[in-house]
């Protein structure tokens, strides 16, 4: 008798993060400026940690990452702050595999049952990749890259210069608005969440080690990923292993009043 091959057992999950997402006090202009007054009272998340867990299990990330969230009747909003001394990006075509660059990623599971969940990735050039998964890869799921977050708004603000290692940058910020209408098919009720509703949510930052190559008197050298080096994965809510596609281990965002 031939038994099915089962995936290896998972380590115990770390404690998951929680966040009370306040309603936006007014319209949010998506321009990449996360210091404007509309964001003033939104709370920062905890700083990101390694995907496998916090020290002493894994060292703290080299650069700080954190974000704020808000919501209204039309959009789910995100304001992301990332320290980065050398901002670089190469991909310009939508739905490229964005994590081949340094990127920021959003994961959303409206139903909270690890089914029909969304992934969104963006790099420092504001190139995005959005996709839908019916179930995790571990369970045989595949990515539907034809999915598009209709009505998506995103903007990036770089504090420094992109792809120029001759200076030291401060980092890059991202502002995102995702319309509820894009997720209506997979929520408990159509339209925006109700006060008190919760979604399973997580965020990841992929960071690559780089070397410099080339350069001349008229052109800067270019960033090249260190050969055979694995990426760093820094997250809001730790997963306990290097795999973001386990929605039951994500954090919980509850939609609250102001």
Summarize this entry quickly.
The protein is an all-beta fold.
Globally, the shape reads: globular
Low-confidence stretches: none
H/E element string? Answer: EEEEEEEEEEEEEEE
Distance between the termini: 60 Å
The overall average pLDDT, rounded, is 95
- Give me the secondary-structure category: mainly beta
Q: Helicity level, as a percent range? A: under 10%
Q: How much of the residues is beta strand, in percent?
A: 25-35%
Strands, helices and their partners?
Blueprint: E1 18-23, E2 49-50, E3 65-71, E4 75-83, E5 103-109, E6 117-122, E7 128-133, E8 143-144, E9 153-159, E10 171-179, E11 198-207, E12 210-213, E13 222-225, E14 232-235, E15 251-255
Parallel strand pairs: 1-3, 1-15
Antiparallel strand pairs: 2-14, 3-4, 4-10, 5-6, 5-11, 6-7, 7-8, 9-10, 11-14, 11-15, 12-13
Q: Your description of this structure?
A:
This protein is 0% helix and 34% strand. With 258 residues, it is mostly beta strands. Strand 5 and strand 6 form a beta hairpin.
Name the descriptors.
globular; two-stranded antiparallel ribbon; 13-stranded mixed beta sheet; 258 residues; 15 strands; mainly beta
